[in-house]
Amino acid sequence: MLRCLTAGESHGPSLTAVLDGIPAGLSLQAEYIDKQLARRQGGYGRGGRMNIEQDHASITSGVRGGLTTGGPVTLVLANKDWENWSRVMAPGPEADLASRTVTRPRPGHADLTGAIKYGHQDMRNVLERSSARETAARVAAGTVARRLLDELGIVLVGQVVQIGSVKAPGTALDASHQDAGKLAEAVAQSPVYCADPDAAGAMVREIDRARAEGDSLGGIFEIKVLGLPPGLGSYTQRDRTLDGRLAGALMSIQAIKGVEVGAGFSAAATRGSELHDEIFYDPGRGFYRQTNNSGGIEGGMSNGGILLLRAAMKPIPTLYKPLRSVDIKTKQPFEASVERSDTCAVPAACVVGEAVAAWELAVAVLEKFGGDTMREIKERVSLYRDYAKGF
């Protein structure tokens, strides 16, 4: 019911996202999207391009008078660096294909494999689309989904919990209500989007050390989602499981190499008697769990608890410290280096993670409840919550 396509190149004129299936009557303004775009461009450790671009979403269809119409929503993000690349990236025969040709693949990027797959002798055709710049369009699209979830009382909060070897204190996997507002405020005040100020300070120092050495850092971010009704996703077919779809969405983000739900990989070293969340019942509350090692998902479905996701990001592969590679034309070895790069983009990846998770959750909500208008959807979700509570 919900579909999204993004288009555009890193140094092209713009990035575009087309969102089909957004229900009518959803309050949506560009300023709401721009706030998340600014978060994506922030975070300590970013490189020089963030000084060039200041992303703004232009809504060119599907919204009138501040409300969605039910038609496709089109979002356009202009690339301000386009004026410096218009001759190189021109779509017509006037394009300057001779300058800025890329024949030297960077280790850790899509360059070489993409060139082999699509038959490109100039790998600029690969790197322009495979670039993490594309995530700006996904953040814009995911933010529309976040707006829909907001209307249903579903709140997402992400934070960075590790950069390099520096880890924030572990958060208890309990199933109690948490103050999402306070957590989001603490994250917003941190230069690395980490709610723990001591850990954040250590992360900044770790980034400074890596930058001084011409190196880069990865890390881990986590996303908590509060207010999900039970029953999103399904056990009936494996491609319908909520955790499988969320894991796929997070893994689709550039540089993400691992995803876990709840206790995740630590569950492998925990006995079953200590891991599984026992079930309790209270007439005023319905069924509940006192622990949350499942991360809010059981049997491929949301169970009504707090959804907890984590994703691990590898260090940015574009380095000031040269790595060895081979020119695809001359077949001669060389050392790959760059002039401009991020030292650490984990905070930005956290924002992208929130966006792709929001999109998948919105898809799951509309699959279960249907509806062409926000009024219908809100009524159905409210009735279902009452039903689940009194089951």
Automatic annotation (TrEMBL):
- What cofactor is needed? FMNH2
- Please state which protein family the record places this protein in: Belongs to the chorismate synthase family.
Q: Which domain of life is it from?
A: Bacteria
Which PROSITE patterns does the protein's record reference?
CHORISMATE_SYNTHASE_1 (PS00787), CHORISMATE_SYNTHASE_2 (PS00788)
Q: Name the chemical reaction catalysed here.
A: 5-O-(1-carboxyvinyl)-3-phosphoshikimate = chorismate + phosphate
Q: Offer a single GO CC term for the protein.
A: cytosol
Species whose genome carries this gene: Desulfoscipio gibsoniae DSM 7213
Protein name per the record: Chorismate synthase
Q: What does this protein do?
A: This reaction introduces a second double bond into the aromatic ring system.
GO BP, one annotated term? amino acid biosynthetic process
